[in-house]
Amino acid sequence: MREQIKKFYLGLVVLFMYAPIAVLIAQSFNASRYRGQWTGFTFQWYAALIENEDIMNAFLNTLSIGVLSAAVATLLALVTALGMRRMGSQGRIFFRGLANVPLLNADIVTGISLMLLFLGFGLRLGYDTILMAHVVINLPYAMLCILPQVLLMDRVCYEAALDLGATPAQAFYRVILPELKPGIMAAFLLSFAMSADDFIVTYFTKGAGIETLTTEIYAELKLGIHPEMYALSTLFFGAVVVLVSLLLFNYRVIRRYRKAEKRGADE
User: Fold this and answer.
1) pLDDT at 42 over 90
2) Which of 119, 120, 134, 190 has the fewest beta carbons under 10 Å from its own?
3) What's the pLDDT tens digit per position in 236-252?
């Protein structure tokens, strides 16, 4: 009886999480422009999505800003984490606490502060200011992914590579980076997700003439969201599902390979 209750509760949780997404996917194939009224199955909103320049421009801005800001934030987090590794315990604790402050700060405070900072330096709000703002908000999340791995990293392998004739650059690329690869990938993906999902900071730092998906959706709320947005959201969800499936498949393949390799070594 207890197992059935657990399964029922788990089913309710999954239903609560994915029912809205299922409704969104169904609405993207609805021939009617109005929610709650099914008039037939169609692909017209996917075709209209490609022809909608405003949505496509917002999508391209979101994609480019997300990739660039995630890459820069991940690189800065890696360099910062390697520098913090060489600090003493007191300095490391201080800077770890300092890096966590933006996570606790309200987004509206961060957005207004960055807007005032950019205007104070005489910068014109636009693509560049959004990119810099997203690097700022992504950096703490990237630090959370990379810093623990850097602090737990064994320096013996790096020193052994140097003793065997490798240059510091070669030892870094062939020893340290492979060991930190999971944390770096996690930092990049998390940073990209936070950038694509951000609205408040983007709204205060975007200026006129440029939109991302979040600000474009907000602008459409006044007149009603276009069905093309349902199609784009469905494509996003499908891409995430495919990506996660590939990662899980590769993880299982790697685990099987390692088990087979270990079994062969034992024999």
Assistant:
1) no
2) 120
3) 888 878 877 777 777 67
To the question of pTM greater than 0.70 for the whole model, the response is yes
Three-state SS sequence of the chain: CHHHHHHHHHHHHHHHHHHHHHHHHHHHCECCCCCCCCCCECCHHHHHHHHCHHHHHHHHHHHHHHHHHHHHHHHHHHHHHHHHHCCCHHHHHHHHHHHHHHHHCCHHHHHHHHHHHHHHCCCCCCHHHHHHHHHHHHHHHHHHHHHHHHHHCCCHHHHHHHHCCCCHHHHHHHHHHHHHHHHHHHHHHHHHHHHHHCCHHHHHHCCCCCCCHHHHHHHHCCCCCCHHHHHHHHHHHHHHHHHHHHHHHHHHHHHHHHHHHHHHHHC
Tokens of 165: 């004739």
The C-alpha atoms of residue 129 and residue 118 are separated, in whole angstroms, by 7
Please, are residues 81 and 176 in contact by the beta-carbon 8 Å criterion? no
**Buried b / exposed e along 76-108 (16+ C-beta atoms within 10 A):** bbbebbbebeeeeeeebeebbeebeebeeeebe
For residue 89 the two structure tokens come to: 């315990």
pLDDT at 205 over 60: yes
The answer to whether 65 and 212 have CB atoms below 8 angstroms apart is yes
In contact, 173 and 125? CB cutoff 8 Å: no
Query: Is the pLDDT reported for residue 134 higher than 80?
Result: yes
